[in-house]
Structures are given as C-alpha cells and as structure tokens.
Amino acid sequence: MFEFARTLQQCHAFQPDRDDMVLVLAGKNTILSFAGTQAALPCRKEMEELGSYGVIFIGMLDDRRCFAREIPESSAVDLPEPLRLYPIRQFLFEFPESWRMALCRARELLFWQGKHRFCGQCGTGLIASENDSGLNCPACRSVYYPQLAPAVIVGVTRNGGKELLLAHNRNFAGNLFSLIAGFVEAGENVEAAIHREIWEETSLRVKNLRYVASQVWPFPNSLMLAFTAEYESGTAQADGEELSDLGWFTAEDHPELPSPGSVAREVIDRIFNQ
Ligand SMILES: [Zn+2]
Questions:
Q1: pLDDT the model gives residue 13
Q2: C-beta of residue 249 within 8 angstroms of C-beta of residue 195
Q3: pLDDT for the residue 1
Q4: Which of 14, 153, 159, 222 is the most buried (most CB within 10 A)?
Q5: Residue numbers of the chain with a pLDDT score lower than 50
Q6: What is the distance in A from the centroid of ligand 1 to the CA of 111?
Q7: How far, in Å, is the centroid of ligand 1 from the Cα of 117?
Q8: What is the pLDDT of residue 235?
Q9: pLDDT reported for residue 156
Q10: The predicted structure's pLDDT at residue 79
C-alpha cells in the first residue's frame, strides 16, 4: 500500500534510516534491486554506496518511508550488483499498483520542483513548505503548488457499441492504433475538451459522454481522464496533423492496440467485451 505524504520537508524531520526505500529516476529509467528474478525497490543503504540518497519524502510504501531522488542517466551506467536500470514505462505496467503510485508521485514532484526553482514573480529561490506540497517564496510570499496537465482520452462507438473509432497518431510506433486523446485547454471544462478534440482531429460530433476511469501518466505530469462517447454525426477523417489514419473497428477485426495496463486499453477492452 502507498500512502501519500504532502510535506516535502518531512524528510528533514526524520532521522534517515538505512532501510528507507528510495525511488531513483535516471532519465527514462528507474533503479531496481534484483535477487535473482525478484525485483525490489532499492533501500537507502544501497543507494548511499552510489553517493545518492532520498531528497523528497513522498510517502509510506508498504509501511516503509519512501523517498525520491533524480540522478543523471550518465551516473547510473555501471551499477553494482544487485542494482539494475529499469525502464519507467515498463515499470508502470509490470509492478504493483502501490509501486506505480509511488513512482508517478516521485516523477511528477521531481519534474515540478526541477521547473520551479525560482519565484516567477520576483526571481528569489523557492523553499519547500513545511505544511504542504507547496514551494514558498521567502521574499514576496508567493506560493506554488504542483501542477498537473489534465488530458481526455475517449472511446467513440457507433452501431450500438459494436464499432470503435481507433486512430494512428504520427508519434505512435509501428502500426499501433489507439483512442482519440488531447489536453484540456485553459478555461475549458472536460466535456468541452472532449467535443473539441474529437471535432478537430476526426471531424465527428459525439453525444452521451460517460466517465470510465483515470490514470496518472507522469510523462511529465498528465492526468488522463477516460470516457466513452457515442457517434452523433459526420464522416470520420484524420486531421493529417496529429492523426495520420483512423477507422471503425470491431472486437474481431482491429489493428495493434496499446499495452494492457494503460487506461486506453482498459477502455478498448471494456467496449470490445460488451
Ligand atoms: Zn517571489
């Protein structure tokens, strides 16, 4: 189980314990400690030998204190056994939900702190709040909180749910097709974002939006909000900018789909299994 802790400076109040867990981010990788094929998160004593230690207290993971630390990828190339680099994207789909939550929190907080070292109003260096997740400016007293980028992802169906709209994004590898997705704009609610994204990217109008699930996607700070919608009108056309191809597919006949574990796949499976 992972329990959130909001006080970034709590780590300074604790006596460091060599059994504390440390989530280390090194570029697109994290570091795991392997005993045979069994992976564990590294503890502070293993990381101290690398000259690294936890700097942000992110919460309690399986009743142990858990810290997050970012190191340059170049300093993690020759790791001593039993430590090994492990791709973050793979980690998110293969390990328990509690580990996933801890890693997402670590990555989003480290990203946000890295981008907020100075006050945007007066330029003074920011310091972590003792009371919450904020960063405070000691000069002008501005307060900054972690920022998330909400995004919508939508399974559009027609023909009583038998057909699902799937699209190939120019950034997707190979012949992968997925759902229509995009960021919520400033000043826009989630429903408006869904209608706008689908119209802009596919020239379709949809109706009957239904919320399905959400997923933290820390690349670098998204919160994916997944919905289904029903086709209303229009002829589906890829916009040619973001999407290069799209079409209506069935459970029996469809292209390559996103990996299991992603919220996109959860929505697709739910529609195809109905
Ligand atoms: Zn300031």
A1: 46
A2: no
A3: 82
A4: 153
A5: 8, 11-13
A6: 20
A7: 11
A8: 97
A9: 98
A10: 87
Rounded to whole angstroms, the Cα distance separating 232 from 234 reads 7
Q: Write down the residue that tokens 């973001």 correspond to.
A: 242
Please give the pLDDT value at position 54.
60
Distance (angstroms) between ligand 1 centre and the Cα of 144 equals 10
Same domain (yes/no): 111, 15? yes
pLDDT given at position 133: 84
Into how many domains does the chain fold?
2
For residue range 91-128, what is the model confidence (pLDDT) as tens digits? 998 999 999 999 999 999 999 999 999 999 999 999 98
Residue where the block lists tokens 């939900």: 97
Question: How far apart are the CA of 139 and the centre of ligand 1, in A?
Answer: 5
Gap between the Cα atoms of 161 and 118, Å rounded: 50
HSE-CB of 215 using CA atoms within 13 angstroms: 18
Query: Would you call the peptide bond into 220 cis, given omega within 30 degrees of 0 as the criterion?
Result: yes
Nearest by Cα to 54 from 2, 19, 3: 19
**CATH code for the domain of 242:** 3.90.79.10
> Do 153 and 268 belong together in one domain?
yes
Quote the ligand 1 centre to 147 CA distance (angstroms). 18
Task: Write down the pLDDT at residue 53.
Answer: 65
Burial class (CB in 10 A: 0-12, 13-18, 19+), 126: buried
Q: How far is CA 75 from CA 2, 201, 221, in A?
A: 28, 42, 24
State in Å: Cα 133 to ligand 1 middle: 17
**Position 120 in a domain:** no
